[in-house]
Amino acid sequence: MTIQTIIEPFRIKTVEPLRMTTRGEREQILAKAGHNLFNVRAEDVLIDLLTDSGTSAMSARQWAGLIDGDESYAGARSFYRFEKAVKDLTGLKHIIPTHQGRAAEKILFTILGGPGKIIPNNTHFDTTRANIEVSGAEAADLPVKEALIPSLVKDFKGNMDIAGLERLLKQKGPEQVPLVMMTVTNNSCAGQPVSMGCIRRVSELCHSYGIPFFIDACRFAENAWFVKTREPGCRGRSVTQLAQEMFSYADGCIMSGKKDGLVNIGGFLAVNDDELARKARNILIVTEGFPTYGGLAGRDLEAFAQGLEEVVDEDYLRYRIRSIEYVVEKLDAAGVPVFKPAGGHAIYLDATSFLPHVPPHEFPGHALACALYIEGGIRSCEIGSVMFGKNDPRTGAFQPALLELVRLAIPRRVYTQSHMDYVVECVGEVFAKRDAIRGVRIIQEPPVLRHFTATFQPL
Fold it and tell me: Which pTM was predicted?
């Protein structure tokens, strides 16, 4: 007999109670929150899959690091441990800590962005796109065509369209393209991984034009695991070795440590260019803090360094990726339209196929996310036309997002298989009642990142 079950490679030492709510209570809670799940109090959520960012359970050694952290204002021991952990992993010269990933984005695009500039990516996620656009630059997405077919099972659907990138670079050149980014894994395209071959070819293409190549490394370890298990010739290499090769092709990277750093706060910008690092540290001092803490306490840096060591553990990654696959397989077997193959950090429901009667301008992903909360207290996140749709500035015509998805992001080391079985059952119940679900309209929205604070009304 071969044992098939993949167990959690850890034991639980501390627990937090969950508050059960009734369907009627959840209907009232959602209405009070303006039908925006970001406005729902965490205590009113049973299974919180809104994001995998900052929601990890830290290990005993990370908690020990909180006690051991050096809180000196300048030159703290904890910074140098953190710096070494990042350098050992990335090989990059200058390590600049920030309070989270979007702070690193803000610094980078304040320096390299600006009007007339174009910054390509396989697919930008929300805060990256916002920080680029706030600088006056244009955020260009270049996903491969396979990424836009949720039902297609193919490896490395997170890759960049290299031919499209080459056309853009030929047309615009380094005068208008200050850097090229690659997001690993590709969050906007259902957490799909990027192959090592694609990373290498994009790097070579960028350098042939004299353009820096950056990696958005939030989920670098999960991406390296997919490379190890899917890419020919990589199975015999360690995740650490593959991650190091991935970073070796880059001139810099940004990272939110709240994902594969296994911490609740923290990020960094890492670069090789001395002048870029000098400018970045000048902004850091004004906006974040001294260069050896950068908006973080010493204890945060200590926990972050430990998390970077733990996240490349292959027993952990095997469990992590398999737990996502488990849910995708269960939903797919039940006929629920789900993005395939399974990605690294979340399950993505195909809202277009789930609710074919709800058009994009009535935001099917958002309507589906609200239905999941009412049905079972599950909080998820729309990745569709609320997040990425917009109106054409010239004609006013609605431009929907490329994909209408609902992301069920799985916090690291938090939920058990029975929690996931509950999620599968709830999604199945909503799917059975899908014909009764109606769309929503936006009542109020801010000028940027509207999905965080907009209010809605069911149609």
Answer: 0.95
